[in-house]
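Follow-up to my earlier ticket, as requested here are the two runs.
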Amino acid sequence: MLGYIIRRTAYAVPILIGVNLITFALFFVVNSPADIARMQLGVKRVTPAAIQSWEQDHGYDKPLIYNDKVTGLGHLTDTILFQKSLKVFAFDFGRSDAGRDIGRDIRTRMWPSLAFAVPTFVVGILTNITFALMLVFFRTTYIDAWGVVLCVVIMSISQLFYIIGGQYLLGKVMHLVPISGYVGGSSALKFLALPIAIGVVSGIGAGTRWYRTIFLEEYGRDYVRTARAKGLSEIRVLFRHVLGNGLLPILTGTVVVIPTLFLGSLIMESFFGIPGLGSYTIDAINSQDFAIVRAMVFLGSLLYVIGLLLTDISYTLVDPRVRLS
C-alpha cells in the first residue's frame, strides 16, 4: 500500500510543475510586464517613467527566465519565473499586482466558498444517487421513462436560468431569501439557501443520468442474476449489491468536484455576491492580476491531484485488486 501511494504521489510532481509553467508561459505570451503595469495604473495617460517605477516596485523589472546580469544561482532565481511562479510550491503566494496579501485573501475567502460548496456537494450526491436508484428500481416503467425525460430537460436548461428565475421568484416576488449578499456565522444560511438549492437542482439531470447508467450496467452482471436466483428481494439486491459495486465509478465521478469544494463556483458566487474564491478568481481575471490567477490555478491543480490520489487510495479499499496494478 505504501509503495502504491508513493508512486501515485510521485506522478503528481511533474503535473504540477507542468501546469505552473504552462500558466506562466500563456500569461506572458499575452501580456508583457509593461502591459500588466498599464492595466494596473490605467491604460490612458501612463508615462514610461510610471510604468518603469511600477515594474520595479512589483518585481517585474527582472528577466523572465534567465538573468545574465548576476552570477551563480542568481541566473535562475533572480527572475520573474522564480520569484512569481516557482515560489508557490512553498505556498508563498506573495502579493497581488494590486498589493494585497494573496495568502490572507485565500484564508479569508475559502470559508464562504466551503460554506456554499460542501452542502451543495453532499446534498447533490445524495439526491442524485437516490433518484438514480429509484429510476433503476422502476426500470422499463413509465416512472423510469419520464424520469429520464425530466433529467434531459433539466440538463438542457442553462444554470443562468435557474439563478435568475430563483432570484426573481424566491427573492423578489416571494421575499423568502435575499437575492444576493453574504454574512458570516449562522446568519449565512439565509444567504446560502438559494444558491445551494439551485446548485443541487441544476445538477440533478446530469448526475442522475450518470448514476442510473452505472447502476443499470451493474444490474446486468452475473452476480446480480445469481443473487436474484437465490431469492433475494429487489430492494436488497439494489442496495446491498448494485450500490456497493457501483462505488468505483461513483468515486471517479466525484473527483472532479473536489477542487470546487475549495475554489467555489465562479458563476454562482459572482451572481449571488458570495465573497469566496470563485468570485476572487473572476475579479483577478478581469483585472489581469497574474499573481492571483497563478495562485488560483496552482491551488486548483493541486487539489485536483490530491483528489486523484485520494481516489486511488479509496480504490484499494473498495477493490483490493487495484493494489496489484
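Run two:
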Amino acid sequence: MQVVVATNVTNHGDEIRDKGFHLSPIRLRRHSLNPLHEVRTLIQLFRLYRQEQPDLVHHIAIKPVLYGSFIAWLLKIPVTVNALTGLGFVFTSSTWRARLLHPFVCFGLRFFLNRLNGKVIVQNPDDMHALEEMAHVRHEQIKVISGSGVDTNRFLALPEPISTPIVVAMVARMLTDKGVLDLIEAARLLRNQGQSLRILLFGMPDAENPTSISKTQLEAWTTEGVAEWRGFEKDVQRIWKEAHIAVLPSHREGLPKSLLEAAACGRPIITTDTPGCREVVRSNETGLIVPPRDPEALANAIACLAKDQELRTSMGKQGRVFIEESFSERLVIRQTIDLYRDLLGS
C-alpha cells in the first residue's frame, strides 16, 4: 500500500517523507479567488490523480474537499472521503466575500458530498446538522469523528506550576474568529479590577485569512502589557508546564486540538458555548463555558479559576480522564481506518 500526501509544502516536507509517505507538493491557497491560480491548482490535482489512480482519496478542509471531489468525480475515483474540520470562514463570517461565496459552496457540497461511494467526516454534531440544513447533505452520508485525536502517551498530565502570578494561555492562530479580541478586552477588565494575571498568546497570524490580526497589533498589546504574544511554539507541552489555565474564546471550531492537548496535560479549560468548543468541555467538571463574544463573562470565568487552586486541580484531573475516554488518538485512528475498510469493501 502506498500513501501519497498532496499539500502545500513549507517546513515539514522531510518530516512527511520520513514517515514513509510519498509527498506531492501542490499550490493551494486557502482563501485565493484568483481564477488563474485556481485553474492551475485544479490542473495539478487532475494530473496527480490521473497519474496515481488512487483507490481512495481523503480531502481535508472546504477548498480541498470541493476541488478534490470535483477531480475525483471526473476521473471516477472509487472512494472519496471528505473531512470538514469546521465549516470555516464562508459559514462563520458576515462579510460580503463570505456572503458571495456561501451559495456556491453550499451547491458544491450538496453535489459532491451526497455521492454514494463516499462519506463526509465532521468533528461535531453542530456541523453535521449545519451540512444537513444548509447544504442538504443526506444524514447517512455523514460520520462524526472527534477531530484528529490526542496522543495521550506524548501529552502527559503535568503538575500545576508553582510560579506566580497565575498564567492564562491561549494557543491558536491569531484571528478575530478565534476570539483574540474578546480575550484582550477580558484582560483589560481584569487589570482594571486589580487582578494580577499573565495572559499569554501562542500562535501566528494567518496572511491568507481575512480575519487575521497583524503582528504590529500583537506587538502593541505586548508593549501595552495587556497580554504577551509569544508567537509559534513547537513544544506545546512547554506551554502547559508554564500555564495554569487554557482559554479559547473562539466563535466556532471543528474540534480545537489546542484545548484537547491542554486537557490531556491536566489543565482546566475556559471556552465558549459554540460548535466544536462546547464538545471538549464537561461544563463545571473539566472547565467553564461562557457565551461567545462576551469579554465580561470571559473575565469572570478567568477570575473564578485564578482564585481557586482546588477547583483548577479537580478540573484538570477530570479533563485528563475525559480525553483518555473520548478523544485519544488511538480511538480516532481506529474509527477512520474502519471507515476506509467499510467504503473499500462496499
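The only thing I checked on run two: The chain has two domains: 4-149+329-345, 166-322. Let me know what else you need.
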